[in-house]
User: What shape does this take?
Amino acid sequence: MENMAVKMQGITKAFNGVKANDHVDFYLEKGSIHGLLGENGAGKTTLMNILYGLYQQDEGTIMINGKIEDISSPVKAISLGIGMVHQHFMLARPLTVVENVMLGRKSRRGILLDTKQTAQELAAVSDKYKMGVDPYSKIWQLSVGEQQRVEILTAIYMGAQTLILDEPTAVLTPQETELFFDTLREMREDGKSIILITHKLEEIVEIVDEVTVLRDGKMIGTKKMDPSVTKGELTNMMVGRDVLFNFPEITKQPGEVKLSFRNICVRNDKGLPALKDFSLDIRESEVVGLAGVDGNGQKELCEVLTGLRKADSGEMTLGGEPVINKEPIFFINKKVSYIPEDRHTTGLALDWSLKRNLIFKSIGKAPYSRNGLMQSKCINAYWEKAKDEYQIKAICGDEKARSLSGGNQQKIILAREIDVEPEVLIADQPTRGLDVGAAEYVRNKIIEARNNSAAVLVVSADLEEILQISDRIAVIYDGELMGILPRGADTYEIGELMMGKREEVAVSGK
Amino acid sequence: MESKLKSTVKEVLGTVIMLALALLVGAVLVVISGNSPMEAYSTMLRGAFGSAQKICELFVELIPILLMAFGISVAFRAQLWNIGATGQFTIGAIAAAAVALYIPVPSGIAIPLSMIAAVVAAAFWAALAGWLKNRFNANEVITTLMLNYIANCFLLYLVNGPMQDPETDLSQSALVPVGMMLTRLFGDYRLHSGIFIMLIVTVIMFFFWKTNFGYRINLIGQGEKVATYAGVNVKRTTVMTMMLSGALIGLAGWIQIFGIQYRILSGIAGSYGDIATIVALLGALNPYGIIAAGVFFAALRCGGNSMQRMTDVPFSVVDVIEGLIIIFVIAKTIVNNKTLGLRDKFRRKQGGKAHVE
Amino acid sequence: MLSNIFSLSFLVSLLAGTIRLATPILIPALGQIYTQRAGILNLSVEGTMLMGAISGFTVACATGSLWLGLLTGIVVGMLFSLIMAWLSITVRANQVIAGIGLNILGAGFAAYLYRVIFGIRSLPAQIDSFQQINIPVLSDLPIIGQIFIQHNILVYLAFLLVPLTWFVIEKTTFGLKIKAVGEHPKAADSKGISVYRIRYSAVLIGGAYAGMGGAFMTIAYMNSFTESVIGGRGYISVAVVIFARFLPSRAMWGALLFGLASALQLRLQALGAAIPSQLLLMLPYLATIAALIFASKKAEFPSAYTLPYSRLER
Assistant: This one.
């Protein structure tokens, strides 16, 4: 009992009648790293949000260091020595590091801010753990990796003995991940206890002492990690079945160049350069995977390729025809399909019905529109067809897109974008946030489109995915093309490029 | 589809409860002003529906309210907050009067010409706000409002200056030619042939949301990002939406000049802009709702006028009731969220768990 | 005519008028800096100011105490904005719609109160408003004294609020929390800040300032109440905040710009300028549009601007 940092028993939490956690038991030994494994939607984050006081459990008890505690708020959690680093960083971007830290603690100067003192102490902790964080830099000036260090630094500064990390490696390169794991090991040496939320088996095997698996809100089991535990066993616990990655056979070899762009320069929303002289060719029946850490210009590239963002300079041809900076409708008419990164604000009109979401790129086009009027019958018929073909689970076509799960939402987008038999398919993070089954389905559909002669660009932060489905792998860093590698390239090599370390040899794939 | 019907019934029922609540608060205000609420409300009721003449008056009020509410709903559906109905109405009325007074053509030509002038002027006045939003990202709530004040100043200038009726010192223009006035339908009652225009527009509005343009407007209302992604030219559609919105409002101005006022005068838009805004919102921006809300508010105005004349209750009680109605209707969403939770629970279970975790 | 415009006395009265007319825009604008920084666009300032104007005027009339009137205006402004806070924060209603609704309610209610309290009169009720201060020597200084040292006390109070607002926003924990809930409410929540409480406070502060600005119009400027006493100043103050990119010092310059436009209109009218007075009346409104054109592209709005917050949603 003594050596339990956290002990959660019979935790139940429901949202609108759906049980996100159903009598979950979880414990964390002091000075250990405990993995929390499960698919998207399995209830991992909910459980940890309860531990961190963001939600209150409907049932169950929580013991911290052997004492039953009622964690009514994050403040209480922090006072109990619990810190959490969320998947989406909890940092206000226009504020400085020290201002973000001061948000979470009482000022020693009453109603006035104690900026100077806090900054000094922060710098001291940063030096101790060799984090190299400047307390006065603004968050938006920092890279994603640096922001993560700020989050961890903040937690430690606030006195965290137990640290919850929610999918921390999703935004890191393989090399950064290694460094990050070293930090974790160091912290474990220091006697801190760590909970690592993840759905990546490799990480569990590599660093974790113990693992708890959740599925559909229920606890499946806890295991001490030793060499006898296999990945297959864990997968089975996580998914409830053996996952076989069945890809459709590649039936066609890449053909002629379909989409070609040269020396593209473009700015991001802040007006800063996002792409610098970016050039790439994509052939018919070819999947080019674009690997890179989030925010290195991938989104801007996809937007230029679909007309959503205007390039400052550069050339682009589609089937030989110059198409740079045409309007989005031009690309839609040319059968350039786009699965955007952000389902909620770009890919779907959340408060529109499902069937309208299916056809909203066809407003004013036959057969969905005749004589200026949209044809409900025709739209209904298409909905029925697409629903079956793409296995969309919904009550009816009049339901709002908002009410669907992430996987089903993505299927609506897939149906709309792939059913037009695209000439070019741009897929930006097509499987992010989906569970294993839905992700597999999406990847299958992408391969199918490829076999139907589409030129495909897949952007993903998930290297595993890139390696699985790409014919060629392009790597982007800070808006520049770092290199193009063939299918089956070495992960480590890709990782180096993702961090901006260019090897002359690598830039030969063009 | 049964559940859809049920939720509609619930929606309507909720709205009725909110209306009743607003009238209840209104009754309290009547008491405070030292009057009997029973008397006030019965006077209102009689003032709105008490005779054939009163019902004609109700329709006279309904014509501009409905047209403007439709115009406002077009913009609001695109999440373009056109608060400039008053100004667009004023500009439309000015243009109509200017054509009638200064272009010496037979009324057969002058009538359509003045209508086109009113519609086009108001459309461009509204489009100005759309253009400012596109070009400079200027918040349309504020620009349309400022354009109201500017239009009003312009009107004041005209009716005290170049367009003032030389016969009087009042702030008004001369009368439009008799031949251009809209025919009265029932003898001396003020109800005029403008009602047919209202009916035509109403019928069109039922179809409008099924048109390509209607879909595009709706999609913009879902967010600029998704609309752009879907291939809608957001900037162009924004301007066109504002133009259509302004055009319908300008049409109301035209009707009011040739059907009721026969001249422009200071404050010609009255409080139609505010009422139409409430009607559009209360009607949930859909044609059925707007018609129901429009009739209710026309009745409230007519009844309020009677009440002010016949009793000692100030008309501002009606203004307060209007304000309360809209606040209550906004607040209704939270009541809905709580009472309808059960139904949602059921739906969520089947629909998946979009918001879990 | 032209020589009149460039005369010293014209300039002096123009600048003095600028400062006086900037005040009823500056006060609500400073309040809206709190509100908008916290992520809430409160368009009901106009209605709130009207409520502050009528209530301040009534109490000042009844008690004979202008200060009590001012206090009442502030309190009523807060109460009225409490509705806005509830609608936008708790009900999570569309803030634009809530603002429009409250303006209609405020206008109606103010007119009702005036009618019920003061009855129908041929001449509007009047009070002795705040008098301009008179500091011997200083106030009599030529030019400087006339421009700067002949206003009523509220004008100085308003301008003192500028550094105070800056200090609160930039140097206190409360200010930091306001910025945080406007930028990233979820982060603020996860750090133990009550997003609701901070946002309610921010809206209420805005309401207090708006009520004060409204009361200023009736008991320190006009000395009577009419239904058009605010005349769009509430909306203009919202525009000033956007123009000022949410900074108090820039809001002051913005308010002075509108003060100048209004004062110019009044002065030119007094001179009997050839331009009709009704067209001159457009000046402040045109200036508002011009300011929005000038500023909106550059304005960096708080990330959570106009977005309601709920812990349960991502």
